[in-house]
Every structure is written in C-alpha cells, then in structure tokens.
Amino acid sequence: MMDALGQLGVECRDSLGGGSDTLLVTPAGLTGGVTIDCGLAGTVMRFVPPLAALADGSVTFDGDDGARLRPMATTIDSLRKLGVEVDDDGRGTLPFTVHGTGRVEGGDISIDASQSSQFVSGLLLAGARFTTGLTLRHTGEHLPSMPHIEMTVACLRARGVTVTEPEQGVWRVEPGPISGIDIDMEPDLSNAAPFLAAALIAGGTVTIPHWPITTTQVGDDLGGYFEEFGAVVARDERGLTVDGGPGVLGGRSIRGVTLDLSTGGELAPSLIALAALATAPSTFTGIAHLRGHETDRLRALVTEINRLGGNATELPDGVHIEPATLHGGAWQSYHDHRMATAGAIIGLAVEGVEVDNIGTTAKTLPEFPAMWTAMLKS
User: Fold this and answer.
1) 197, 202, 312: which is closest to 252 by C-alpha?
2) Active-site residue, from 227, 266, 351, 367
C-alpha cells in the first residue's frame, strides 16, 4: 500500500528514522503516469483505484497471477458510473487502467458488493474528495464483513468527514476536507488466530498482550469462537489468554462447532483447520465470498484437509467437516498467507505435515515463522 501511494505522489516515511514503527503520511497532489503492482493485496486493488481517479493522469493496475483472477468488475463499473474512464478490455479483472482527470464529480450510484466489503470501503474512503460527495447503495445479496465497513465509517468520521446511513445498505459521504490526525494503529487481531489455536492443540495457555479493550475488528470475536471449541478464555490486564488444558497432544478432545462467519471471513481458515482436528462435526457458513480471496479458500481448504485424510465438504456458502484421523503430507499454501497458517495449525497436531511456501505469511506477518517457533519453544 505504501508503494502504491508513493507512486501517486504521497509521501510515506519513517518519521523517527532507524526503522521505527512510526509512519508519517504527507498528502500531495495525485499524479498518474504509473503502473501499480498490487501483488495479491485486495486492499490495494480495491482501495487505490478510486484515489487514482482523482489523479492527474492514467494509472495502470496489475498484480500476481492469482490477483488477476480476483473479481474487480464492481470497482471498475462503479468508477464508470461516476464518469471515470477505465480500460479493462472487458475482463472485469486486473490489469486495467484508470484515466484520472484530477477530479470526480461524484453522485448517487448502486453496486452489488456481495463478493467483498472492500468494494464499499474503497469508494467511501475517496468519496469526500468527490465534487458532490457520494451516495452509495448496496443492491446485492448479503453484504459480507460488515464490521470492516463500520471501521471505514468510523475512521472517516474521526477525520471530520460527515458520513450518514439513511437506511440499511446505503451510505452518504458529504464532500469536504479529510483532516490529518495522529493515531495509534491497532495490530491485525486476525493474525492472532493460529497462535491462540495452538493452545488447544499443544496444551497450556497462549496470551496475546495489549489486546484492545474496545475495537471494531472482527478478530475480537476469536475469544468467543475458541470457547465454543472448548477452551477457557480470559481477558485481563495481560491481554487475551486462551487455555487449552492438556491440548490435543495431551489427549483432550476439541468440540465441533456451528459458526456463521459472514462478519469475519478472514478468521475462517484458522477455525476450519482447528475443526479438522475435532471429534465432532463442524459447519461453517456465510463465507461464500472467500472464493474470491487470494485463492478460492473454500476449495483450497477442502482440498488440503482431504489430502491429509480428512473429511471436508464444500457447501454453497461454507464448509462442513466430519471427524477423521489425519496423516502427514504436503499442504499447499496457494501463495495465500491464511492457507499457510492454517497448515501450520494442523501440522502442530499431525506429524509429517509440510507447508509449502510458509514465507507467504510475509504478506501480513513477516515474522510468523520465527514467532511460531519461539512460541512452541516457550
């Protein structure tokens, strides 16, 4: 994301120097004439194109082979409805070119964002800089990951942007300035899922320090989910702690669960991996949109679990798992960080599981291999 913004003319730099974790973002007039490599990052390919429409000049977006399979028609069509010229040769995917003119008129548009909440967030984030603002209506089926949209709206309001929701599935962003503020960024709580799951497998406790007291992140639901699997969960001044008792390796059984994950699909791979080790059936629903993530996560999870002797079935909007005895073997990551960590969870309980390309976790947690090893040694 920093590279993408930098190519548009925005300065993003370490304000303290020496590799600190303090970032200073200085806005500037947006310029085109560049090609942005999105890699596999959905936020880049869906949040930056509306900004590129405000740039003076054309901006081309491309990405990895897997990214070229991810649905982008909603973003492309939305920009066209707003009067922005976009060339995609009719594919509805990467690569495509946004021909920015320095301004977007704005107005009232309707979209189907049932494949990803990112389509809504990307437009809302830029809407205040459109000449007449933006009224956005979702007209499709169930809108996934609503907490992410709520987070987007909260961020805009904190920066002085007027955002109203006149009815369910409709957002109005008034035109105006977006104030710069100093903020402390929360860590991505979903990255804690594999570490917390380890308590149920290896036994003992795992504590994630500095867990926020209040947050809009869906990762905050992890405590409740792990309780359903049978863990004891506590929140105190130390953080969030999951106690797995003796763990699977110590002879304990993991309960089966029935979970609707429509608000937090990014948690699904870790929870499904844990369910593959349970002694009772589990069903996960509300996650059809995961087919459009870094890979088709539903198909990938079912394929890899069954490759290890599991009994997983793909549902129209989720996955069902029956208890089975797993064995070692290769676990493909599909260049997907969530698939890699799901394989690590199963590999903790099943001897001989080899996760292909664990380095793909660098997308969201570059230190994952070292952190995982350190946790197990402790």
Assistant:
1) 202
2) 266
Q: What is the CATH number of domain 189-377?
A: 3.65.10.10
* Helices and strands per DSSP (H, E), number in the chain: 11, 19
- 2-173 and 189-377, same CATH topology: yes
Enumerate the domain spans of the chain: 2-173, 189-377
Distance CA 43, CA 28 (A): 21
Each residue's pLDDT tens digit, 143-166: 999 999 999 999 999 999 999 999
pTM above 0.70, yes or no: yes
Give how far Cα 41 sits from Cα of 79, 196, 241, 258, Å. Answer: 20, 25, 30, 30
For residue 20, give every residue at least 6 positions away whose Cβ sits within 8 Å of its Cβ, in sequence order, or none.
Answer: 14
Beta pairing class for 85-87 and 96-101: antiparallel
Query: Which CATH superfamily includes the segment(s) 2-173?
Result: Enolpyruvate transferase domain (3.65.10.10)
Q: Residue 249: phi, psi to the nearest 5?
A: -70, -20
The DSSP string of 65-98 is TTGGGS--HHHHHHHHHTT-EEE-TT-SSSSEEE
- The string of DSSP letters for 320-349 reads EEE------EEE--TT-HHHHHHHHHHHHH
What SS3 state is found at 166? strand
Convert the pLDDT of each residue in 192-204 to its tens digit: 999 999 999 999 9
Q: Is 266 part of the annotated catalytic residue set?
A: yes
Measured distance between the N- and C-terminal CA atoms of the chain, rounded to whole angstroms: 34
